[in-house]
Amino acid sequence: TGAFTYDPGFTSTASCESKITFIDGDQGVLLHRGYPIDQLAEQSNFMEVSYLLLNGELPSKSELEQFSNHITRHTMVHEQLAQFYRGFRRDAHPMAVMCGVVGALSAFYHDSTDISDPHQRLVASHRLIAKIPTIAAMAYKYSVGQPFVYPKNNLSYTGNFLNMTFSVPAEEYEIDPVVEAAMDKIFILHADHEQNASTSTVRLAGSSGANPFACIAAGIACLWGPAHGGANEAALNMLREIGHIDRIPEYIARAKNKDDPFRLMGFGHRVYKNYDPRAKVLGKAATEVLNKLGKQDPILDVARKLEEIALTDPYFIEKKLYPNVDFYSGVILSAIGFPTTMFTVLFALARTVGWVAQWNEMIADPEQKIGRPRQLYTGAAQRDYVPLAQR
Ligand code: CMC
């Protein structure tokens, strides 16, 4: 009963009004607060883009300094939080660890429970953006059995993350500016993407007034799936499995076979029916970064050839399947030295900014209500209970 629109997968339902991100999927356009993603990726930096997403405008020099200082001041996590890691098996997937540890932050910041106070919302937002690199780096360190590295406040946001991830007490670690720039670009390209599954999850969780740290943990859980953020890990694993350009046709044939559940990971998108503009930037960056680092990886050739073959194949043309953000990012992350299990963690780190910006926008919206979809009931009609002895 009732006049509901049945829209499985929400393919045609706008769940909110938003001023943060604009996507034109047919043209392959992505704008943050009006600024094209390629301009931001090439000319801006992640701290500036974070400010932009949160505040609506690019910062002045002093605004950026103040914002970066606020973030830097919150990078430490409570020492007790480190104990959470030790409760996980050492071979736990870092995304499982992220879900648990970020959720656990809600137990440390009870002041954030009062989300009606804009100041508390701001503090919670800064804490989340500041602590997520520390938490992600700790997840990595735990997985490789190395000691945690504390944040260093004199480093950039991205430099600090790299230092916490790759430095070890026994050796001097110098941040390679090529790696820092590539990482920062990857963070910018993953920062927000309007009402995708994980962002909608954060909004839905937050719509009940839940603690913001718990809401972001919900977003992380959703992002983990291979149809969403987990695709970057799956894409690189797939490229490695293909291994040589000679084997590409076999995988293209599998992707087209209706009876085979296999999909080309890093291909296709709910909204883009054209080249994902983020994949364009990353495809270019992959060659540049590998060249600059003096690294060669045969999977880059596999990726390029796979793209070339897929883009000329009638199946992919007809279904408008193009490379998405997850297709080339793994090649760069792998060259930097991350294991595939960390790829989605890096996505979560960057997307935290978008989640936080969207959460703030929702809470401040006077039209905001608890998210409560309806359903089309297809189950049994009313019937009488039958006692166990008679069944
Ligand atoms: N390989 C082969 N066929 C595909 C693929 C693919 N990667 N993606 C979609 N199709 C086919 C699909 O089989 C379907 O065919 P038919 O109409 O004959 O049933 C048609 O294209 C439409 O697919 P859909 O699943 O109905 O489309 P959707 O909008 O629900 O799904 C998607 C979008 C991204 C989940 C899907 O394209 C996919 O599974 N891609 C692979 C995973 C991936 O790369 N995900 C990352 C998305 S971008 C970043 C992010 O969100 O994190």
UniProtKB/TrEMBL annotation:
Coiled coil: none annotated. One of its GO terms (biological process) is tricarboxylic acid cycle. The active site is at H269, D326. The chain crosses the membrane at residues 327-350. Pathway: Carbohydrate metabolism; tricarboxylic acid cycle; isocitrate from oxaloacetate: step 1/2. GO terms for molecular function: citrate synthase activity. InterPro entries: Citrate_synth-like_lrg_a-sub, Citrate_synth-like_sm_a-sub, Citrate_synthase, Citrate_synthase_AS, Citrate_synthase_bac-typ, Citrate_synthase_sf, Citrate_synthase_typ-I. It comes from the Bacteria. Keywords: Acyltransferase, Membrane, Transferase, Transmembrane, Transmembrane helix, Tricarboxylic acid cycle. The keyword Acyltransferase applies. Signal peptide: none annotated. One of its GO terms (cellular component) is cytoplasm. Pfam families: Citrate_synt (PF00285). It catalyses: oxaloacetate + acetyl-CoA + H2O = citrate + CoA + H(+). The keyword Cell inner membrane does not apply. Belongs to the citrate synthase family. PANTHER family: CITRATE SYNTHASE. This is Citrate synthase. It comes from Edaphosphingomonas fennica.
